């Protein structure tokens, strides 16, 4: 093989890793890209130029120094503002939403959230895909793929929603098959992917938010109903043998507690979700806004002044801390991030939550695990888009040729 051919092959093989470095913000300059890829400056320059030609990134024409850096300035790299997008969709107990998401986890456009969910998944997915197709039509963006987040354990690779407990959908709904069919009917000629909403939120937070840099990231959070969890190991979701790992919502934290949809009692799913907070605070769910929004607003606005809200928050914190302690003992994460209502509980009394986890976990006594709030808005939508972007990150040339 000639040296020229060898250089070309090395450059092509580096396109995916280089794009992922820019996508996740780990290569802000061509100099950093050179170091991270372990290639020559010439190869890194050629790779960056090729990604720019593909319309995926931008390379500043004039080098600029990064604050705090030493040595000569390097060309800055960024995702292309006008580049292709992924169509992302999310369905939850209180509605659904579609969005277009670019590289870097940037929300390019979103639809208003719909507040009703039909019992027929084909009806719901048809509506959310139609909304996404309209966004594509209005923006004129090239679409690389589509991803769907649902509040259910989802089998891989079939894409079957085994237990959409908080939707009126039948168990075993073939959501990926339906999603693909809806995309085709609306003229969106890409492959659809689907996954559990908390898994996808964790993936988005690891790449673009509060989980960035963690090697063993545990994410726990509330949806609009129920509780989910996810584990990201060295940049990849741990989904188990069939995509069903980390159903943490069904950890028992109060054996005498509320009946759970799974058949047990006192699970995190029913003891620390938005409805549990409202009921423990003596509040009836209102007709306006989702349960998640109502519960989060109650914590933010009345925790400091209302004893009933204070008692409810502390009860949920203690039960959440008990569940997190058990997970720390089993998984030994290097960071925990909390989403949904759990983020609001952490903000209300971080010392109490961290103390419960430290007191109830083996490793908490010898070295506390950082517990942080999720930072991304619509992280499940961003995570759904990550599913669609993954083939492009793996092999940009082949993936873009296919769409």
TrEMBL record:
Keyword Cell membrane: no
Similarity section: Belongs to the ROK (NagC/XylR) family.
Protein name from the UniProt record: Sugar kinase of the NBD/HSP70 family, may contain an N-terminal HTH domain
UniProt keyword terms in alphabetical order: Kinase, Transferase
One Pfam family per UniProt: ROK
One MF term in the entry's GO annotations: kinase activity
Highest rank taxon of the organism: Bacteria
Gene3D superfamilies with a match to the protein in the record: 3.30.420.40, Winged helix-like DNA-binding domain superfamily/Winged helix DNA-binding domain (1.10.10.10)
Coiled-coil annotated residue ranges, if any: none
InterPro entries named in the record: ATPase_NBD, ROK, WH-like_DNA-bd_sf
SUPFAM superfamilies named among the record's database cross-references: Actin-like ATPase domain (SSF53067)
The keyword Lipid biosynthesis appears for this protein: no
